[in-house]
Specification:
This protein is an alpha+beta fold and about 130 residues long. Helix content is about 35%, strand content about 25%.
């Protein structure tokens, strides 16, 4: 099997994912998964599509992550891994879609509006 690549995005984070046959190593920006995401919750988020399909030890995954915070980066990696797994085996798409791993989360930060401190917050109103 040759290397299969896919892109996952979430908020401002972009994950380029390269999946090849291997022993289950996940490398992010040339660092180990546990080293890059010390939080076990974020490690779990990245591994979710693999565990859903019971293929955790079958593929080596290399991920280039850019932009965003750690939550957005972990979810971008999850989307990229799910898309790569669908390219490898299209029959898995229904199972991954049922869990919501195929859908790109469109939510992003709302822009700041003029005359306000933030996007929706207003300055304190003074009647007198």
């Amino acid at each position: 099997m040759e290397v299969v690549n896919a892109i996952g995005r979430r908020k401002a984070a972009v994950a380029r994912v390269y999946v090849s046959e291997g022993t289950g190593n996940i490398t992010i920006n040339k660092r180990d998964l546990a080293n890059y995401f010390p939080s076990p919750i974020l490690q779990f988020v990245v591994k979710q599509p693999l565990e859903k399909l019971n293929v955790t030890g079958q593929y080596d995954i290399k991920i280039n992550l850019q932009g965003g915070g750690f939550k957005g980066q972990s979810e971008a990696a999850r989307l990229g891994i799910a898309r790569a797994l669908v390219k490898i085996n299209p029959e898995d798409k229904a199972a991954l879609r049922a869990e919501g791993f195929i859908t790109r989360d469109p939510r992003s930060v709302e822009r700041k509006k003029p005359g306000r401190p933030k996007a929706r917050k207003r300055f304190q109103f003074s009647k007198r």
